[in-house]
Design goal:
The complex is a heterodimer of chains A (110) and B (381). Chain A is of the alpha+beta class and 110 residues long. Chain A folds into two domains: 2-46; 58-106. Helices cover 38% and strands 26% of the residues of chain A. Chain A has helices at 2-18, 22-46; strands spanning 58-66, 72-76, 86-89, 96-106. In chain A, strands 2-1-4-3 form a four-stranded antiparallel sheet, with no helix packed on it. In chain A, a hairpin with a 6-residue loop joins strand 3 (86-89) and strand 4 (96-106). In chain A, helix 1 runs antiparallel to helix 2. The two termini of chain A are 48 Å apart. Chain B has 381 residues and is of the alpha/beta class. Chain B has two domains: 47-202, no CATH class; 207-371, Peptidyl-tRNA hydrolase (Rossmann fold), CATH 3.40.50.1470. In chain B, helix 5 runs antiparallel to helix 6 and helix 9 (258-268) packs parallel to helix 10. The chains are: A alpha+beta (110), B alpha/beta (381). Chain A binds chain B through residues 4, 8, 12, 15, 19, 21-23, 25-27, 30, 41, 44, 49-53, 55-56, 58, 60, 77, 79-85, 101-106, and chain B through 8, 10-15, 18, 23, 26-27, 30, 33-34, 37, 45, 48, 52, 56, 59-60, 62-64, 66-68, 191, 194-195, 197-198, 202-205, 213, 216, 220, 250-251, 336-340, 342-343, 377-381.
Chain lengths: 110, 381
Amino acid sequence: MVNFVAVIPVKGLIWCAQGETGLDMLMQYLLIMLLLLFVVSMFLSLTRRRAEAFAKAVRTVTVLRCENCDYKEEREFQVGDYVFKRIGECIKCKGGLYISMIYGVPEKPS
Amino acid sequence: MVIAIFSGIWQLLPQPGGDYATYLITYVLTFVLFVLIWMFLGQRYQLYMWLREAEKATFRLEAMAKKSREILVSTIREVGKPNSDPFDEVNKFMDFFVIEPVERDPFGVLKRLEHLLDVEREKFKDVVAKIAPKASNEDRANLEALFAATHAVNYIYKVVRHYTILGKKTKSMLVIMQIVYNIPLIMKMAEAYFNALDPFAKGKPIGDSVGPLVAAKLMKGYPCKGVGDEMVVAEVPFEGRLLVVVKADGPGGRVGKPGEAVAKLAQQYKEKLKRIITVDAAVKMEGENSGQIAEGVGAAIGDPGPEKYKIEQVALELGVGLDAIIVKQGFDEALSVMRKEIADAAEKAVESVKKVVREKVVEGGVAIVAGIGNTVGVGNG
């Protein structure tokens, strides 16, 4: 294994430096592949990334509607909101205002 | 082209003045060495790469399980105002399990399964009542759902960790290959449960709430009363017919026992009952659009069996047709905050229900409409 990892690549590099034949080029390719494999393996075994957990970023929208007129309002979700919850009075006609829809919009990563 | 190929081959041949013997021996030896390396180390290298993949997934799942427990504990502290630290109790509950009933003697297996599911639900309720004594009924229902989602993330983490460690210990390609090839699907499932934590903690509707949302839209403005276990019902007149609309009691994260409620109501209205219509969220196939409505026949309900059985049984007994309306969505969407396409699809599903009623129920007849799913964030209309 030591011979494989250390001696052959060194000898190969010396040969590559000495000549310019097609065989040298082939050797060069093989050695580069070998070294790459070695470096990648070492890199993978040395790096141990700590994983982190992130929930999907979603903006939640609450849609309010009036029971009598066409008034509609959208705002950010607040804890305690639920669909068909009565919220108060419509600012246009004083009719009952209720939550007609709650939905999530995926946020684009910044 | 031909010249290029031949010049390439020519390059490989020994050139005048070169040390022919040394080159040839090195050339052959290097190839032999490579072949031997791949013969003896190739599988080990593959195993190493698979183990790395499994370890990476395990680390990620570990972080998700830890974070989900933190979310659960902080929600319990916020809404339940416990007297002692709930962390130990939560950790203890993460090892909770249910043993499925024996199926070798299938007689009465659904009743035994239903009993076990009832006991399981009772256990969840007891734990939540113990660690969040000051939480409201709706918050308790949300906490139960949050517990279930956290438990699911933790269970997935433990299964993946088990196979990863087993693969490392045994160095068996068969063991490690099974988990690695399933990792993309496993991670998708874990992420779906992880993304369900926020809606359950804050009481937001999820994709699976579309069934109860359709029912709530139909029963809006009509008084509703309790029926069976955690279910509500409203009588809704519609174009000379009567719709008996049933859903889980909202807006807490409940699924109730819709089969039991439908069976009870079917017996109650059996003289005029013409149709039982179930509305539920269903997992779409890849390539299908989220929020797509499909109509079919049968009981659209994704429970382990007992509730579905009750609906089928009462329909058969009374000779009533079963219609199913599904709102298609991805598995991850069913557990995440309800997307706009799905919220919009609820209105289309209401129209589909009305269409089925017009076509199949004569004037003066009765139809039971059941909105199946978790009613988190959806009130009773």
